[in-house]
Amino acid sequence: MIDLDDELRRGFRELAEHGRPVDLGTRAVAAVRRRRLLRAVGAGAVVLAVLAVLTPLYLLRGARQPQPPAEVAASVTVSPTPDAPPTPTARSPRSVIGAYADSGGTWWLLDPNRGRYEQLDRGFSVLAVSPRLDRAVVRQGSRLGIRQTATGRLDFVNLGVARAGQPVWSPDGERVALPVPDQRGLFTAALVLDPDRLAVTRIDLSMSPGRLAFNLSWLGDALLAATTDARWLGSDGSLSGASDVVYAVSDLTGHMVLDRGIPTGMAPESHLWVDSGIVAGETSVVSETLPGRVNLALCDLGPRQQNLFQVVSLREPDLAAGQTWTVRVLGLRVLPGRGRAEVVLEQRVTAGGHTVSWGLYLAGPSGVLRQAAPTGAAQVLVVPATDVPGGALRLAF
Questions:
Q1: Are 382 and 110 in contact (CB under 8 A)?
Q2: How far apart are CA 70 and CA 65, in angstroms?
Q3: What does the alpha-carbon distance between residue 328 and residue 334 come to, in Å, rounded to a whole number?
Q4: What is the DSSP string of 346-380?
Q5: Are strands 341-351 and 354-364 parallel, antiparallel or unpaired?
Q6: Residues 6 or more apart whose Cβ sits within 8 Å of residue 241
């Protein structure tokens, strides 16, 4: 006796060897069973009939597969082989777009309790949103303030410096760190802001002589500065191919906790791994730029020997004359298991300083998935939220 279910699967398996993998689903199998009960047809004839009917549909299904988004036609190669990650719970770290700017430059800030974005007054911009989604660092002109996302209360703070860099919230949402950069964006000191008391403390970071920091983030309760040798910096502060990147970790008194370099690479053709400024737990995201390609990897910052785990390789799309393609890391969520994480990234194509197209993606063990941005968004701030209120849960990914 021929098992129709087995024959149907075998037939599609043979087709899949010459085409794309196909999901049989339960409807096709159920339809075969109904035909078997209603019509006394030989099993072999049924199999042939089903394959004859479904083969054109299978081919047509392949022909109708949606094409890659026209906005960013980058070709993505995933490493390692995708497998399904665990489904996160409501209280586990999730990625949420905490704020966005529309094409007119107006900023919209998420009210997590209502799950809605509220428009800010003209002249305000959002620099960073707390991982608890309850507060945001905003700027109005040269003034910096802390805004409550639910009530709209705004408190301005005096930093006491002429220039401050990009603010970064601590993982617990209790403090904000800001670099104190020179005109090139490089620094050796940072400010730590208590958003409750609006008190500011300056910290001189510990790092090896002759090194300057270019990215600031948190490693638990300590400050993590990505540094490079000043001798290899360009006049504009850019890194050269000969630069090496070393992480210098300082506690909140300025004493050095850790001084460790990024491994030189995972393959003979590896060039320079550069810190992205995105850290979660004891893991940072580093990038390597090669001709026509950008590789992203995870860098283990824990007490054991440092390792790199490649996440994804992105290939440059076909560009018109004068167009430029950039990849920027926006967020990171660490998954169970060593070397497993999801990286939120942006691909953008510009020409003459204007955005031609852009897209938001989630790269990880399950592959590279396009993510929806709020309607009209031209720039987004991704937040590694530690506790997503029910009102905003539908916005998490």
A1: no
A2: 14
A3: 18
A4: EEEEEETTEEEEEEEEEEETTEEEEEPPPTTEEEE
A5: antiparallel
A6: 271, 272
Q: What are phi and psi of 111, to 5 degrees?
A: -95, 105
CA pair distance 96, 392, nearest whole angstrom: 8
DSSP bridge partners of 397: none
Q: Is the pTM of this model over 0.70?
A: yes
Which domains are seen in the chain, by residue range? 4-63 (no CATH), 75-395 (2.120.10.30)
Model pLDDT for residues 91-137, shown as the tens digit of each residue: 456 899 999 999 999 999 999 999 999 999 999 999 999 999 999 99
Amino acid 9: pLDDT: 34
Q: Tell which residue, 342, 339, 327, has the closest CA to residue 294.
A: 327
Distance of CA 184 to the CA centre of its chain: 26
Amino acid occupying residue 282: E
From first CA to last CA, the distance across the chain in angstroms is: 48
Alpha-carbon span 382 to 374, nearest angstrom:
12
